[in-house]
Amino acid sequence: MSLKTHIPVEKEYLVNNVLLNESADLPADVDKLLKLVCREKVKYPVIFIGTGSCGLISGAGETLFEINKYLSDRNLKADVVETGCAGYCSMEPVVGVQLPGKTRVSFKNITSEKLAFILDGMFNSIIPEEHVLGQYKSPSLELWKDVPIISELSFFSMQYRNLMKNWGRISPFSIEEYIATGGYRSYLKTISNYTHEEVCDIVEKSGLQGRGGGGFLTGKKWKVAHTVMADQRYLVCNADESDPGGFANRAMIESDPHRLLEGVIIAAYAIGTSKAYIYIRNDYRNAIERLEKAVDSARDYGLLGHDVYGSGFNIDVIIRKGPGAFVCGEETAMISSIEGKRGMPRPKPPYPAVSGLFGKPTVVNNVETLSNIPAIFENGPDWFMSLGNETSPGTKMLVLSGRLNNQGIIEVPLGTRVKDIIFGAGGGIPGKKRFRAVQVGGPSGGFLTGDNIDIPYDFDSLASEGVYMGSGGMVVLDQDCCIIDTVKYFMDFIQKESCGKCIPCREGTRRMLEVYENITKRPLDENGHTTLERFKGVMQLESLASVIKDTSLCGLGQKAPNSVISSLKYFRSEYEEHIFDRKCSAGVCKELRLFYIDVEKCTGCTACAPKCPESAIIGTKHHPFFIVEEKCTGCGICYDVCKFSAVLVK
Amino acid sequence: MIVQIEVNNKIIKARKGETIMSALSSAGIMIPSICSMKDFTPTGACRMCVVEVEGRQGLVPSCSQPVSEWMNIKTHSPRVVKSRKTIVELLLSNHPDDCLYCERNGNCELQILAEELNVRERRIMGKKNKYKLDHSSPSIVRDPAKCILCGRCVRVCEEKLSVFAIDFVNRGNRTLIGTAFNKDLNFSSCINCGQCIMVCPTGALFEKDSLPEIEDALNNPEKTVIVQYAPSVGVSLAEEFGIRQGKDISGLINAALRKIGFDRIFDTAFAADIAVVEMANELLSLKGNKDRRPLISGSCPAWVKFAEQWYPDLLPAMSSCKSPQQILGAILKSRYPGVSGIDAATVYSVAVAPCTAKKFEAQREEMTKKGLSDIDAVITTRELAKLIKLYGIDMNQIEPEAADEPYGIRSSAGKLFGASGGMAEGIIRSLPYAAGAKEPSRIKYQELRGGRGRKEAEIRIGKTTYRFAVINGMSDAVNLIEEIQAGKCEYDFIEIMACAGGCVNGGGQPIGTGDNAVRTRVKALYGIDEKETIRCAHKNPEIKELYDNYLGSPMSEKCKSLLHTSYSERKVLL
Prior knowledge:
Structural class of chain B: alpha/beta
Helix content of chain A: 25-40%
Largest sheet of chain B: 5 strands, mixed
Oligomer: heterodimer
Strand content of chain A: 5-15%
CATH architecture of the largest domain in chain A: 3-Layer(aba) Sandwich
Shape of chain A: globular
Low-confidence stretches of chain B: none
Shape of chain B: globular
Radius of gyration of chain B: 25 Å
Structural class of chain A: alpha/beta
Strand content of chain B: 5-15%
Number of helices of chain A: 25
CATH topology of the largest domain in chain A: Rossmann fold
Mean pLDDT of chain A: 91
CATH class of the largest domain in chain B: Alpha Beta
Strand order of the largest sheet of chain A: 1-3-2-4-5-6
Helix content of chain B: 25-40%
CATH superfamily of the largest domain in chain A: NADH-ubiquinone oxidoreductase 51kDa subunit
Mean pLDDT of chain B: 93
CATH class of the largest domain in chain A: Alpha Beta
Strand order of the largest sheet of chain B: 2-1-5-3-4
Distance between the termini of chain B: 46 Å
């Protein structure tokens, strides 16, 4: 039978001996117990399974069911722990097994059918090598032979895990485990030892910049809100992550919700408010469930509520579910949404720090910004300053996706070279394909290519290249990706997600999208005139982009043309190829593809002709067939059905 | 505090904290804008008002950005002008190219902007959104295709009227202004006041056209077409014809209407006199009846619908007296056929009102008797101007004429109905007479005039004091209603008009004639009052005649069946 609670530890015990213990080092017996609580040592076998959204999508739900079935069928005593994602999303579902006295071993891509094989092996101390990801090194535990150390894998070796240090290790459902790893101690120390101003000072001194992309000094923002005279202030945590290619915040909440919650509470203390909102999009069901559990247990532990442990500090955290509009990530739109109005941005000034939610001073901070706070108070601002580079201290979570060998979430010190990230942690491009570009920062970001990927990843360096950090997304494109098609995708996203308030964003982004649709579409008849129109469209793009950037009301519109501008800068030849040659060399823009049949290879088997939706393939059986170019729409069905590779792209 | 700012290389002075736009306008520099509205906080939606500010990355909206010392501003740099022009071009690229067929052709802010910015070619092209017209409301037609989403209608509806009938719906390029669940307007909480039309820069909102049916009636020899026009129409129509603003052209209107072919022309102010007498007596009859205090006026059809929707518990306190338009309509189809020998069934009764809600009121079931509507068609001041132009009448050449008898005679108290506070002033003048006194103690009640949100006056008759309140616009009405519901209200009579300023600022009045227009209309009404010899409703000789020979005494059974009505709760999508 599996054990649901592995270590009986009383709330009062943790509160009195850990949370309220102000000394730096805990007594040995307490420390020993905590090690058991956070499973640095185990008494029974423990099976870990990552059930973050990325895991669940890959089948972790079924695997978890199989684990429980396996244990109950065999009547085995083991503890099953659901963790969040460990960051290595392309390896999900990740199953870890830790036997008493031995280090924890993780296995990759363990779908339900592979599970029994893994567990059979592990319970007999045989490592099924082909499925191994690696083992976690621990000083007091015996290492498995011939199993790679996880932290030495290329994906992990260049990372510095501060925000992500608990990811995949502790259960996000257990406040005890978070406390056992040192959690909530800095919070209680902070409220009893520092004034509001001192807390703001410490954060300002650490140099922490807003991780939502703006890069404004967090401590400074807090100070403004704290100094404005008001009977009420608010803290809002922006968990409305909606960028395509950005899911680090979701994983943060799913893996270590208490770290965020502790950051939220300290920030609320700093600005002197008793009410904090966490605004999270409603589709993040898994994250909401874990966050709600975290808030409930923090309340149960007396960490939230009235007069927290006699400090006189009152705090309540409210989870507000957003409808899932991209624009609600903009702070003033988010404020409107929390107020119950339509999520539309307002002009600034007045800035939210002066007049925000319900007209009161309001600080809006991103999930990642706030998750940084507990460690700053645990290790001091100088420690934080020492991470990263001169202009951008600290670490940053990045989301690697696209044509990379390793996909997932990593945490690196700011200032790490983009190239090193792609070819180091990212593991380079699969299939010996040529690197094309990296799209940084989602719809608001832009492209980096060629020599430009040798720049450090920090606020200033990216800005000097005209791209924007955004949510930390990095989508890598190889030779098989079409830049035009990628920009078209982002334009489509933005024009759909524009709130419709200001004219340049509402009307302009649609016109820009139409230009892209025009150049990736096959015109009915090809004459010089249509080429001229396409060309005119592209000429207009630049001027339209500059007006939209110059005049839009909020960040969404101001940054909407970034990918257009940077693609025009670096990939002009690709535009020209699409406009003049009517060709997409990556073969992505369907309507521009033209197919022909190689007469040498075609056997006249008639597999293709009946499948053609346009009846564009003609010929007689056993003789080579022929594609009528005027009728062909480039759908590629013939290409897919041909068994003799006789259909070729022109 | 005064700060100095540099604008286009010249130093100008500005008040600290004021917006760039306001500083520039004091310095004589015009900045175009679509979404900004006087007395509303800026929304920064249209981006037309952007200027270049040194040290700022993007362009800055001058409507919301406050000035700061030594700000260096360029208001018409190539970058700024290009941006403004592009914005207008973007709007036009998604706007129906049908100006010649548009309600607002020649009076359209988008046209003016395109002209000012010299947009002379279709440079930006693309797909246009297609929408259906919403004809469902009896008063207002919406054409979302022409809407440029400036949001002014939404803000007026929310902030000035507290109605919240419309808001932004959908996202991105599909955004439109719609009602709850995007249903038709007649299902919504719209009170038909038409203030949205008044602020609409384009032809996206306009009144329901009633001219074709009126023309049909005029051309039908069987019909006797009788027209009445409201007190404030006389003082606002001049604006449509380039005549001096605030000139009372009632005489010219009479002449024009006669030339168009209306058989009888009467003045709604005559019926306003009846309304005054009825309400004064209603008020007296209620004094001492604590349950039915205060008496709230029900002459404004927009306010009536507002109360039916949100405050049905207030309906018992609503005066049962119909509005002047409906009173005259009722008399024209009951008493008038008798005196003039016309068959009631052939009477086609038209009202000219400064209001779109009057179109709705005329269609109400409560306003019919034996299957005949009191009023058959209502046109707004704007539609009257169109009708006059359609019939080729040169308002600058014709001679003024008098209205027809007997209902063309009015006191100036009836005329005052056009302005906020006028009804209360009329009643207060006639109240002593209704209570048995010979002469009113006072004629002029300055405290009931002007643009304040709530105005108060009181009059002592014998030992009783009657307290009057006048509410100017719906948001103030909501405040007062809350007081009434909390039992804190000390008033005996409350006049409520939905539009700020009263009917002179109604939703059917001329559009785009400037901020000053409403003030001159009010001034004109009070000017008429100053010059008039009959200044109390009860002194109108024709009213006396009507009561003596037909209605009997005020609040008689006959009056109740003809001139009074009742209202009940209305279910709408809120």
